[in-house]
Amino acid sequence: MELWVTEYQTPFLGLTCKVKATLRNEKTPFQHLAVVDTEQFGKMLLLDGMVMTTESDEYVYHEMITQIALNSHPHPENVLIIGGGDGGALREVVRHPKVKKGTLVEIDDRVVQAARDFFPDLACSFDDAKADVVIDDGVKFVQEHENFFDVILVDSTEPVGPAVELFSANFYRNVYNALKEDGILVVQSESPFYNKDVIQMAFKGIKSIFPITKLYLASIPTYPSGLWSFTVGSKKYDPEVVNYVRDDAELKYYSAEVHKAAFKLPPFVKKIIAGDE
After folding, report:
1. Residues 234, 211: contact at Cβ < 8 Å?
2. 193-233, pLDDT tens digit by residue?
3. Which of 124, 209, 208 is nearest to 175 (CA)?
4. Which domain does 112 fall in, by range?
């Protein structure tokens, strides 16, 4: 019997993958968690039916949510990741030579455990000497740390369930306060094809607080539409300017050229962030 898993990306469209094995299927205190081994993308982590990461293309998302800010900020020594319990963003952070400490705050410890059990290439970051993994509410955590971080990355699911508050203007204000005077925020802000409202919500909320707000794009095959957006809020530095690039062979998607090109937006995306679409 063939088994298939489907993520319904819109009410009318789904991504369906043939499954070799179901490795985990559980209801955590916060969400439904599943890990399946697929023919096309290798192991896949799903939360509430949405694809969070796969072995095949995880590097695109994790490099692009981290490297833009890490290479725009001249001294990203203290970095906070909110969400990202799979460990991929933390892996990129702690590998960066200028980072002294990477703190991961994940609300659901079962996500961290699933990464340890099934995604060793991501979970390797948890035991790094630079890493601190905290099981806590990220919204509360930023309220307790004022003028503390150089870079904050919000690696969340879309704004449903426990992630809703991570897209609020009040949260962005607390993040602003948790950053040092030259800090940078990056949030994942969904697909410009399917989630215009999320992009506008994130961009408008961040722009109302940060003096510099920009959006950039990356191509991620397993995320809805394959075209994904990230929104940057910066207190001082232009995120389009590359101040440093991690020089190693482990980077598969990000480069200085990609950094600059990612901010070159198609006209329809410019209309979305301008509120005209």
Report:
1. yes
2. 999 999 999 999 999 999 999 999 999 999 999 999 999 99
3. 209
4. 58-274
Q: For residues 63 and 50, state if they share a domain.
A: no
| pTM beyond cutoff 0.85 | yes
Q: Which of 233, 217, 207, 240 is nearest to 149 (CA)?
A: 233
Give me the phi and psi of 117, to 5 degrees please.
-80, -30
In angstroms, the CA 226 to CA 7 distance is 13
Residue with tokens 């400490």: 101
Cα 268 from Cα 152, distance rounded (Å): 28
Q: How far apart are CA 207 and CA 192, in angstroms?
A: 18
Is 79 in the same domain as 207?
A: yes
* Catalytic (active-site) positions: 155
> Per the structure, how many domains does the chain have?
2
Residue 100 near residue 148, CB atoms below 8 Å: no
Residues 24 and 127 in one domain: no
